[in-house]
Amino acid sequence: DVKVTQSSRYLVKRTGEKVFLECVQDMDHENMFWYRQDPGLGLRLIYFSYDVKMKEKGDIPEGYSVSREKKERFSLILESASTNQTSMYLCASSSGEGYGYTFGSGTRLTVV
Amino acid sequence: AQSVTQPDIHITVSEGASLELRCNYSYGATPYLFWYVQSPGQGLQLLLKYFSGDTLVQGIKGFEAEFKRSQSSFNLRKPSVHWSDAAEYFCAVGTISGGYNKLIFGAGTRLAVHP
């Protein structure tokens, strides 16, 4: 089974801090994604990547950046955390069109 | 624009009763369709997917879904619900946007199961 591992289940950070959320997959998938999940809004795509060192903006990229230096790792960066970035963050990977995504367990981030 | 609508935010059923969760999509081409389930505090798990062929798709945990092109729907069903099915369910459509493949998710339906 494909595993997608998110390094932290829970994080509490202060406003203005730089925050790194890490995601690693072990099945050599080309495609990786970061979503945030908020009640009543479902999952919203922040950024995605289809190759090493490649990134594309999703629907809500403001306030975020990403890094993909190795195929298996996709990092989400909050440059200066704000309270409206308190959310559940989900990482996913896939091998291509039509195959669906495999999700990590999520990181619940609280910004105080 | 592509979109997915799950009309029911919350559904409550009794254990042993049948279940149908609704999903409608908007997409110009033949869609790839998915249902995911999320247990509390967990990531999303794929229940089933539709690419082409037989419009009735079987998934894990006894779930099935039927693709109806004329109604732009992909409803999820289970004949007899178990207490462990209490979770949030997300419908998604695979799209091509800007040359990239992406999933668009509905807002989710939260299922409660009464004993």
Concise account of the structure shown:
The complex is a heterodimer of chains A (112) and B (115). Chain A is an all-beta fold and 112 residues long. In chain A, 0% of the residues lie in helices and 53% in strands.
Ordered list of secondary-structure elements with their pairings:
The complex is a heterodimer of chains A (112) and B (115).
Chain A lengths: L3 E3 L3 E4 L5 E3 L1 E3 L5 E8 L3 E8 L6 E2 L6 E7 L2 E6 L8 E8 L7 E2 L3 E5 L1
Parallel strand pairs in A: 2-12
Antiparallel strand pairs in A: 1-4, 3-9, 5-6, 5-10, 6-7, 8-9, 10-11, 10-12
Chain B lengths: L2 E3 L4 E5 L4 E3 L2 E3 L5 E7 L5 E7 L5 E3 L5 E5 L4 E6 L8 E11 L2 E6 L3 E6 L1
Parallel strand pairs in B: 2-12
Antiparallel strand pairs in B: 1-4, 3-9, 5-6, 5-10, 7-8, 8-9, 10-11, 10-12
Q: How would you describe this protein?
A:
The complex is a heterodimer of chains A (112) and B (115). In chain A, the strands form 3 sheets. In chain A, strands 2, 5, 6, 7, 10, 11 and 12 form a 7-stranded mixed beta sheet that branches. Chain A has a 3-stranded antiparallel beta sheet with strand order 3-9-8, with no helix packed on it. A two-stranded antiparallel ribbon of chain A has the order 1-4. Chain A is mostly beta strands. In chain A, 0% of the residues lie in helices and 53% in strands. Chain B has 115 residues and is mainly beta. Chain B has no helices and 12 strands. In chain B, the strands form 3 sheets. In chain B, strands 2, 5, 6, 10, 11 and 12 form a 6-stranded mixed beta sheet that branches. Chain B has a 4-stranded antiparallel beta sheet with strand order 3-9-8-7, with no helix packed on it. The model of chain B has no long low-confidence stretch (mean pLDDT 91).
* Structural class by secondary-structure content of chain B: mainly beta
Shape of chain B: globular
| Sheet/helix structural class of chain A | mainly beta
Q: Secondary-structure element sequence of chain B?
A: EEEEEEEEEEEE
In one word, what is the shape of chain A? globular
The counted number of beta strands of chain A is 12
Annotation field: number of helices of chain A:
0
Average pLDDT metric of chain B: 91
How many DSSP helices of chain B?
0
